[in-house]
Amino acid sequence: MHCLLPLVTMRKSLLCLLIAAVYTASAVPASELNELVSPEDRTYPRYIEFPDGEGNMHTVDLEAEPDMELLAEIERNPDNNQYLLYTRRNRIISQTLVINNALSITRSNFNANNPTVVVVHGWLSNQYTSINPTIRDAYLGKSDTNVIVMDWRRLALADYATAVRGVPAVGRGLGQFLTFLNRVTGQPFSQMHLVGFSLGAHIVGNAGRELGGRAARVTALDPAGPLWNYNSNRVNPNDGIYVEAIHTDGGVGGLGIGSNVANADFYPNGGNSQPACYTSLCNHNRAWELFAATVTYNHLVGRLCTTQTQLTWNNCRGAELRMGNDILTKSGSGMYRLDTGRRYPY
Q1: Which pTM was predicted?
Q2: Residue 137 is part of which domain span?
Q3: Residue 61, by phi and psi: left (phi above 0), alpha (psi -120 to 50) or beta?
């Protein structure tokens, strides 16, 4: 009989471990369990719902055949992109800057002594999408800045699979335009900040690459996730002197990539679900809303996390770094967690 005691004890120990594991899992909210899944290991179904710039959802076939004729045209003609300048002298009505047309720049209100920020929208969007006036007004309310809104609707209005394939060419076109701007005005790349949302985040990454990583800053606002997890054309830390990403919808099935892609990656509220948001669309858009607020107030401060577990459980204790803002000489590295409020300025 004595020989059975160790076996009984072992079974009791295993039972206790099983109960503890079940209890721990049940104590973790579903949203936090999602965050524990490595974004690189996420897989998307063939058909997903992805929003346009007005918040309307569209069914996307991630395996659709891209429109090769349109892609060839985009590759040949980087001037498909529109560049719309706003300054404190023309806050509402834009002036169109045209690549390889020096007069369009010299006759505009562009001032090479002021910093330049380029804002790039996402899929199924255009110059009128909310991100553009929101960030424009934040900058012009803060300082004398050249705000250039890039409208890339020629490709952005194509199906998602085609738009993804065309991102590198659109990004290169933006880089070529900024090289032309530098040549005409003498403004150094160290005075330029490229800001992109969703697919636009990967566009500004490719534009920075075209410039040889010389742009002062590249900011990726919840860079798009579908078809980008293992895509070598996605935004990366070498695309600018300082590259920052703000992740707001990176959970399982989220619209954002949810993994580190920059020098400094910020995960507001864990990077998955945002306060007062009940849809993936709301979480996704919160990235540019938060960024615009930081341009005005520079008030959101992240804490450096050394592990994904620290980030998920909100117990990061590392150095502080302010998220977003308009500082061209900003620097930092690592991943950061911060918590925000439910409404502007968060």
Answers
A1: 0.88
A2: 51-338
A3: beta
